[in-house]
Write the structure tokens for this entry.
Amino acid sequence: MRRVSRFLALSLVALLLGASAHAQVAPLARTPVIPPATPILAHSGMVVAQESRAARIGIEILDRGGNAVDAAVAVGFALAVTYPRAGNLGGGGFMVIHLAKDNRDVAIDYRETAPAAATPTMFLDAKGNPDPKKSRDSGLAVGVPGTVAGLALAREKYGSGKLSLADLITPAIRLASQGFPVEDDTADSLPRAKERLARWPSSAAIFLTGGQPPSEGDRLLQFDLADTLRAIAQDGPRAFYQGSIAGEIADAVVKAGGIMTKDDLANYHALKRPVVRGTYRGYDIVSMPPPSSGGVALIEMLNILEGYDLAKLGRGEQSLHDLIEAMKRAYADRAVFMGDPDAVKMPIAGLLSKKYAAALRASIGDKATPAADIHAGKPADFEGQNTTHFSVIDRDGNAVSNTYTLNFSYGLGLVADGTGVLLNNELDDFTSKPGTANAYGLVGFNANLPGPGKRPLSSMTPTIVLKDGKPFLITGSPGGSRIITAVLQVISNVIDFHMAVDKAVSAPRLHNQWQPDGAFAEPGFAPDLLDALQRRGHKIVPTEPHTSANSILVTPNGYVGAADTRTRGALAAGY
Ligand code: DON
């Protein structure tokens, strides 16, 4: 939450101060430095995750004969224990899988759903205005969690079959019951989440002592979470979605002002969906379809950029200008068209078409187009019905790209009493009222209004880039609205600018999401370059880093993992 409000505050201040064209870019008060990532080379398998214990568990599973999906499932359960700010059982996410044997790509949608009693006006106050307290800070914000169903479905359909669900959960049970020292990003993030956690005695009992966050090195013990994990290991996902755990989750949500019932949990299903596909300079892009906007917006931006010779231009003023302009146009389309594919019709084929991208490209000139002059386009082919990241690859070339989240750091901050499960506040990703913005400043319209059982539109973009049908780059990121542009830049850095994966991940990133009309620039860009972009009309807004693209590149020498250093403790573990 803190990160988000700081980002919004910073953006607002910078925009109000009029970081106008021709002005020089004002530096951040505190300029964090993005440390260089360290490339790790391995030949038999690689796991890159935001927390080191979980990454090592993935390697242990590969070493025991599990495939990349088994390893990803074990990492997913482990992060729910070791990385509580985003790893979760009480949230949801997306997994993109490449299966080497039959050269197939599949997506698993385990996004949270709105309860059956949800309505389009549920986040409005008495005057009909959006009430962020309802959508971010109350039980109404909690979506029916999808993670347990999603991870179980992934193992059942695509795991090696050599390891049971219990085998994959056991390391997480051990960590929850025996505890581990609080360190790295968890030591950094708990103090910032203190107030949000302190609101709920059930959360304070686990994450705070005498109202204070643990010191670095203190042991974090999560006995209730261990019991919940044991129940899932023994009886499968129904232990979570039916019976006493489901009852405790629904009770906690209702007590916090929400409308979730035990039936909502019993009715939850993770879904297999066809991936979205695009091509970029001869590579295949395989990514997450709606209800994430990530894959479609990513491919739309890549299609626009394909028309520019970025390799020749280098990563300088002209190419960054082109990049920002592509971002604005794709985010405008995202805002207007996209939502839950089971509830709204979307012009997906049109948005993904090269012809449409060419038309958008034609509207890009030498100067920045003000956001107010950009409107969602008119893509053809209106179709019929329609936040931590880790990357894994195994020795056979099966690959998993997984992003999952509680939305804010530690979600709502509410642990469902007796379960150890932190609950999400994902439903803020819906549009509370057409034309208004969510916590990430993302404006939305009718396509993304809340409704019974609906899945809120996401920006999560787990992606696998294929070369000649085989995994080449596995990437994705947390970071709310900035996820899609982070993934875009990692891909472009590798393919266009021929950067090694560690450099591609560490390089400073730009972000423009159409509204608000600012190009957010991480520390590390040359001041002259930012001034030049500003002279073209881009409102450059210095920003702290918010993304973390844990990536794997497949090279002739082996798998190269790069853990993003924007937070402490990420690890590329290879074997
Ligand atoms: O699904 C989404 O787009 C957001 N709820 C993701 C939140 C996120 O990435 C927070 N991370 N920093």
